[in-house]
Write a structure and sequence with these properties.
This protein has 2 domains: 174 residues, BirA Bifunctional Protein, domain 2 (2-Layer Sandwich), CATH 3.30.930; 78 residues, no CATH class. 49% of the residues lie in helices and 18% in strands. The protein contains 10 helices and 8 strands. The strands form 2 sheets. Strands 1-3-5-4-2 form a 5-stranded antiparallel sheet, with helices on both faces.
Length: 296
């Protein structure tokens, strides 16, 4: 069993809510095993907008700081060999999700959703950056997170011994290198899916911005509202940044020269407007302070 936690600084709660509830996370044998576990939330499990709104409203209590964490995205992955046991008794997944959330974030808001779309069953957990209706952050230390994993390991042993392959890796319980390799492969696949999800999000925002036919300043403002920044390379506009990862226009827009040219043009227009505004401000200051100008 792999437990991974990722912090997110952006406030696009609806994107993560929709991702963990996506149809691709289900399959034909999982319809009877569907569940969403909501913790400290006044929302309907089937109304994604109400879940997103609950996170957005709770985020208003958070003290806005540079690099502040708005939410956490945790994953609990089970060994492929235990898939049949989990499908036979889906209540196991609900109990593990509930136990993990109560240990990890008892006072925060959270939603858990199971995915069956890979060769291993896994649970997505979305956690608010602060406690419910409060500004206290949900950060935990590495030592605390390790203890939570150990406690969940003990809970799994005592209550669900049939999950004989889904143990949290440590020196004493590492049975063989093959199982370790399978778990690391699952983690790499998860990270790759996260990258693809972010790339798709950035692409959609750029396409939406182009469809709105925004001017340079409004274009960059629109991107910033979605936590996307423009970046340059070698003095030239190259692309955008999201969650610390760079995306070139030429790559993310599938190599369309006209679209890339239009995006770069909008960014350059914003730069020219900024320079023009700076020049006008300087001229205005010189007119307002003629004596200071003469001394020069």
């Amino acid at each position: 069993m792999i437990i991974k936690s990722t912090s997110r600084k952006d406030t696009n709660f609806s994107q993560l809510v929709e991702y963990i509830h996506k149809e691709a996370g289900r399959n034909s044998i999982s319809d009877a095993h569907e569940f969403s576990y909501l913790h400290n939330m006044n929302a309907s499990p089937k109304e994604l907008d109400s879940i997103s709104k609950a996170f957005e409203e709770n985020d208003q209590y958070r003290k806005k700081r540079k690099n502040g964490v708005a939410m956490y995205h945790d994953i609990i992955s089970f060994a492929p060999e235990d898939s049949q046991a989990l499908l036979k008794d889906p209540n196991i997944l609900q109990e593990i999700a509930r136990t993990y959330i109560h240990a990890r974030c008892p006072d925060a808001m959270a939603v858990a959703k199971v995915h069956y779309d890979q060769d291993h069953v896994h649970i997505h957990v979305m956690i608010s950056g602060t406690i419910r209706e409060g500004s206290k952050v949900q950060r935990i230390s590495k030592a605390e997170f390790k203890q939570i994993k150990q406690d969940l390991q003990l809970y799994r042993k005592q209550n669900f011994p049939e999950l004989e392959h889904s143990y949290i890796k440590d020196v004493k319980e590492r049975q063989n290198q093959d199982i370790e390799q399978r778990q690391s492969d699952a983690e790499r696949r998860f990270e790759e899916r996260e990258k693809q999800s972010d790339k798709h999000y950035v692409s959609k925002i750029l396409e939406e911005a182009l469809s709105l036919d925004l001017g340079g300043k409004r274009f960059t403002t629109f991107l910033k509202e979605h936590d996307i920044q423009v970046y340059s390379r070698g003095g030239n506009i190259a692309g955008v940044m999201f969650k610390g990862r760079k995306y070139r226009f030429s790559t993310i827009m599938r190599g369309s020269p006209d679209t890339v040219k239009r995006l770069v043009g909008l960014c350059l227009e914003e730069q020219r407007n900024a320079r023009r505004k700076k020049t006008l401000n300087r001229v205005q200051q010189e007119r307002n302070n003629p004596d200071k100008e003469q001394k020069r």
